[in-house]
Backbone:
């Protein structure tokens, strides 16, 4: 194990070399070392700090419970919202939390498509963060009317007065965008978790744990077929999540930008909101990872290299956001529209100038330190800037919402917004919800994507063309004459190997010997295995395409039917069939269809969940999800002959061969 | 040749010439800028896969110093193109008076000069250093270019935004949209990628680069191009939808014009041809690895990029959609000169950065 006497952070390491790619994990822990390091927080007693953190989080969650209860008893009057500032803190908090979520999807989906392998150390935790942040976000629209029992009015069906929801309203787009974002993020996260849950299942000592993780792992055996469909589904989900994440904060920005209000109505909002969202979320990832890597001894897995990359992303997105502020200012002046001009001067120099300058300095100025490498690899600076950025991004939403509303077109209706104690307690409480969930996550789920991380370790690389080089023959005496026979019916033979190269070579030989009912098992997807096994290309893409297009068509059809046939009502002078207003929901429904297609295809084609499989009878097979590689040949195979097959397996260079009872 | 004929015709219809020329010029300039940002991004992200195709992009961006010369007709025809340069008109228009500190000839010329010269300098310098690496080898040059790429990108974002405000948005001096620069960026980057792919295919047809660039690289470039087809559509739709929905007259008029007088067909063609058709053609993995499909797609997208610019610029010139012979001639002329310079740049230096430390990584690269 690597975390020992030396301080990993101070170790001399080049994080930006040119001649070769840097190692993503320090100290060469090996496959088993990664499993140990990641499984440790789940299997051992957590550190005292975890109990303290959970305790504080639960107290804050209690505050949240009290605040929401008080809200339900008394109504929204307990908040500071007034006229003209009818949209107060609830929407500020909503946008803030949705934004936090975006970095998780950026890391898990966008960086995956860009083959940024460093993401493997942090993507699991970041995705969990996404899911919890979106949960916090969803709370606010649900409670902001003070009457959550009427939330079902947002479902696409008529209420008891025969009124349908209004699909030309961006608030309805939000309902679809955020809930579908949550669903797809959850599917994506869970799909990635399956191999790691199998690891936890195979390591579990207690029966209950074994049952729990076993159920969640759906019978995963790391087989070549499993990995084939898994990788395809994962890639497709990443491809779907990437436009989805852009669309979600774009839709959130539409809430503001489709209005006529100066300071809200500006065309740069969609990309600028997305950049801001990733910016704030990345800061939250840094905050959490700085703590987790120390608390759970993961310093060698989440290294300075990761922080360097994240800091660069913060610098990039922060600069985009800052540039967007400037463009807004410039165009407000350039437009020649006095209302626009007033709104921006009022923002910077009016009664909310303090909030504006907090936002400006936190978001635009503070990340500029990351131009310097020394700042990008200094934990104190990273931690400080990440907190400052989160504060700044909360204030950004505050500035946008409140400063634009409080002084609108009519000076006679101008007002000022001050939060009440209940506003503050609800915001603090939502952090309680977030941190409680996160504490539970790090305790009960592997917070680093082990299987993916193993796939990018040096141990996973195969250097030779196994089909060209003949195997080293194993001497006959190493092979015992015959495996023990328990007398029960035999399922087949299982051979164990030490590295992916041997597995590939053995697979090649088994295939050459014309076996058909066999499979390879590995802790991570071995590159080139599907070719050697001769597996057909996964058909998941077709399913995703068909379901995606059907989803989009269904979304459009629903909106057309509701708005033009079932409940024809002219709103804002728009035609009954306002197709531009229906595109967002059409898109979201398409992504939902595609995402469900990917999940369904994965389960269908890899024949999961499977509650029992003979291979689980083998004690050795438990290391399939850790650091060993296996090849199984079924007795059903027409070529299967107990002794000849066994000899073949020994000849492939197996470290061990055993017979599996059915 | 074509340019010569165009200039002859220009005498009869100067205004038409300047507008046609502007579109043609913007077309080649945005291609070169697309290649420029492509190269900068490869350095800032320390990309390995793209090294084998980077040299092609470097040649394209190497044309920018020459494009400085080609900008002269636009600067001469400046008063015909930009109505805000008419002092008489401005004196009767309070809004344009308000914009005068920004929209005035002196400042416009200054900004244009700064933007174009800075791009030319960045393009020239990056190409020169990369060529120098062919002789010197080592990682020092890569390191220098990597450090320079981040500030270059920051400057590129600022300059392209204001350039597109100046050269395209201000043709209609009353209209404004904050996302306009991003829109131009999306289209330019997509078209730049299309040109890079096309050049690789052309070289391979001439039996060059065949052992260096394989379907893995084309696939990756194709993915990026596909991504920016979608990105362009995302920005274009967001801009349109927000303006359509809010329905403020001074903003809507820009789209209202482009959805009438015959321009509505161009708008529909753009929606289909710039997004829907390439989206479905390029979505499959097989298509992005198929040279025939890529030939068709890249030529088509380059055409669409031209139409996109035409659609942005021309409604200012003529109320209805009236293609003119000069459109074709200027495109052929400017495009011809651009190609000639490009070919000249490509002759001589190695077709790939032979001693780039990451070349081996690029050659052995495989998609998932």
Residues:
């Amino acid at each position: 194990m690597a975390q020992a006497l030396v301080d990993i952070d101070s170790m001399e390491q080049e994080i930006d070399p040119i001649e070769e790619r840097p190692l993503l994990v320090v100290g060469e822990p090996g496959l088993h070392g990664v499993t140990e390091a990641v499984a440790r927080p789940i299997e051992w007693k957590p550190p005292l700090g975890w109990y303290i953190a959970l305790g504080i989080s639960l107290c804050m969650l209690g505050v949240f419970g009290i605040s929401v209860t008080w809200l339900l008893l008394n109504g929204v009057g307990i908040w500071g919202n007034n006229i003209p500032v009818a949209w107060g803190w609830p929407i500020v908090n909503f946008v803030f939390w949705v934004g936090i979520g975006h970095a998780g999807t950026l890391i898990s989906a966008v960086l995956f498509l860009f083959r940024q392998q460093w993401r493997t150390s942090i993507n699991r935790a970041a995705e969990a963060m996404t899911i919890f942040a979106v949960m916090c976000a969803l709370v606010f629209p649900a409670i902001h009317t003070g009457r959550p029992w009427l939330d079902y009015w947002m479902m696409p069906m008529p209420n008891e007065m025969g009124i349908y929801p209004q699909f030309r309203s961006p608030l309805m787009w939000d309902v679809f965008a955020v809930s579908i974002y949550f669903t797809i993020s959850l599917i994506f996260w869970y799909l990635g978790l399956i191999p790691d849950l199998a690891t936890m299942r195979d390591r579990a000592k207690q029966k209950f744990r074994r049952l729990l993780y076993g159920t969640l792992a759906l019978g995963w055996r790391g087989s070549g077929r499993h990995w084939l469909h898994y990788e395809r589904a994962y890639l497709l989900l990443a491809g779907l999540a990437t436009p989805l994440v852009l669309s979600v904060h774009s839709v959130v920005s539409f809430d503001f930008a489709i209005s006529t209000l100066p300071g809200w109505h500006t065309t740069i909002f969609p990309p600028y909101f997305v950049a801001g969202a990733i910016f704030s979320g990345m800061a939250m990832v840094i905050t959490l990872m700085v703590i987790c890597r120390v608390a759970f001894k993961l310093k060698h897995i989440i290294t300075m290299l990761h922080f360097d990359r994240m800091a660069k992303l913060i610098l990039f997105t922060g600069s985009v956001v800052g540039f967007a502020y400037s463009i807004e200012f410039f165009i407000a002046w350039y437009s020649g529209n006095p209302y626009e001009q007033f709104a921006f001067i009022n923002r910077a120099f009016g009664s909310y100038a303090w909030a504006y300058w907090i936002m400006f300095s936190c978001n635009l100025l503070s990340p500029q330190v990351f131009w310097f490498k020394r700042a990008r690899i200094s934990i104190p600076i990273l931690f400080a800037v990440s907190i400052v950025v989160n504060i700044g991004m909360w204030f950004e939403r505050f500035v946008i919402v409140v400063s634009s509303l409080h002084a609108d077109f009519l000076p006679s209706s101008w007002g000022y917004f001050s939060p009440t104690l209940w506003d503050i307690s609800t915001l603090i409480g939502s952090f309680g919800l977030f941190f409680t969930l996160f504490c539970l996550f790090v305790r009960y789920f592997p917070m680093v994507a082990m299987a993916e991380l193993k796939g990018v370790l040096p141990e996973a690389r195969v250097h030779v063309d196994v089909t060209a080089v003949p195997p080293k023959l194993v001497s006959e005496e190493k092979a015992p004459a015959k495996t023990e026979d328990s007398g029960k019916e035999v399922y087949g033979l299982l051979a164990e190997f030490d590295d992916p190269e041997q597995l590939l070579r053995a697979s090649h030989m088994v295939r050459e010997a014309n076996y058909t009912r066999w499979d390879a098992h590995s802790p991570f997807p071995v590159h080139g295995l599907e070719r050697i096994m001769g597996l057909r290309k996964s058909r998941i893409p077709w399913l995703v395409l068909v379901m995606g297009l059907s989803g989009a068509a269904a979304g459009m059809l629903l909106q057309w039917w509701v708005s033009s046939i079932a409940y024809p009502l002219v709103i804002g002078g728009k035609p009954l069939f306002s197709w531009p207003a229906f595109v967002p929901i059409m898109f979201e429904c398409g992504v939902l269809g595609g995402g469900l297609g990917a999940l369904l295809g994965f389960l269908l084609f890899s024949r999961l969940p499977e509650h029992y499989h003979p291979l689980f009878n083998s004690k050795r097979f438990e290391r399939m999800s850790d650091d060993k590689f296996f090849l199984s040949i079924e007795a059903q195979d027409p070529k299967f002959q107990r002794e000849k097959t066994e000899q073949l397996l020994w000849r492939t260079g197996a470290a061990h061969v055993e017979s599996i009872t059915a | 040749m074509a340019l010569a004929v165009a200039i002859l015709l220009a005498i009869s219809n100067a205004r038409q010439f300047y507008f046609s020329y502007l579109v043609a010029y913007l077309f080649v300039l945005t291609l070169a800028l697309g290649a420029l940002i492509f190269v900068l991004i490869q350095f800032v992200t320390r990309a390995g896969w793209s090294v084998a195709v980077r040299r092609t992009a470097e040649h394209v961006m190497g044309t920018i110093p020459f494009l400085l010369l080609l900008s002269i007709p636009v600067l001469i025809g400046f008063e015909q193109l930009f109505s805000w340069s008419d002092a008489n008109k401005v004196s009767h228009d309070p809004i344009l008076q308000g914009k005068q500190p920004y929209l005035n000839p002196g400042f416009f010329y200054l900004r244009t000069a700064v933007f174009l010269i800075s791009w030319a300098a960045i393009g020239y310098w990056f190409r020169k250093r990369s060529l120098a690496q062919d002789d010197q080898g080592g990682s020092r040059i890569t390191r220098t270019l990597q450090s320079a790429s981040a500030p270059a990108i920051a400057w590129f974002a600022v300059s392209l935004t204001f350039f597109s405000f100046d050269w395209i948005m201000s043709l209609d001096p009353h209209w404004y949209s904050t996302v306009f620069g991003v829109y131009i960026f999306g289209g330019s980057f997509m078209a730049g990628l299309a040109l890079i792919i096309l050049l690789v295919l052309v070289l391979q047809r001439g039996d060059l680069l065949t052992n260096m660039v394989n379907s893995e690289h084309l696939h990756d470039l194709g993915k990026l191009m596909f991504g920016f087809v979608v990105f362009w559509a995302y920005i274009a739709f967001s801009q349109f939808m927000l303006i359509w929905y809010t329905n403020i007259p001074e903003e809507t008029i820009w789209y209202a014009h482009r959805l009438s007088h015959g321009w509505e067909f161009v708008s529909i063609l753009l929606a289909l041809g710039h997004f829907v058709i390439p989206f479905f053609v390029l979505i499959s993995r097989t298509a992005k690895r198929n040279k025939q499909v890529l030939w068709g797609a890249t030529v088509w997208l380059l055409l669409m990029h031209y139409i996109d610019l035409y659609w942005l610029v021309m409604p200012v010139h003529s109320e209805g959609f009236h293609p003119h012979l000069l459109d074709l001639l200027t495109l052929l002329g400017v495009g011809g000169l651009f190609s000639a310079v490009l070919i000249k740049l490509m002759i001589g230096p190695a077709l790939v950065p032979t001693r780039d430390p990451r070349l081996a990584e690029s050659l052995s690269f495989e998609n998932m």
Observations:
- Residues 1-5 of chain A have pLDDT under 50 and may be disordered.
- Residues 498 and 628 of chain A are 6 Å apart (CA to CA).
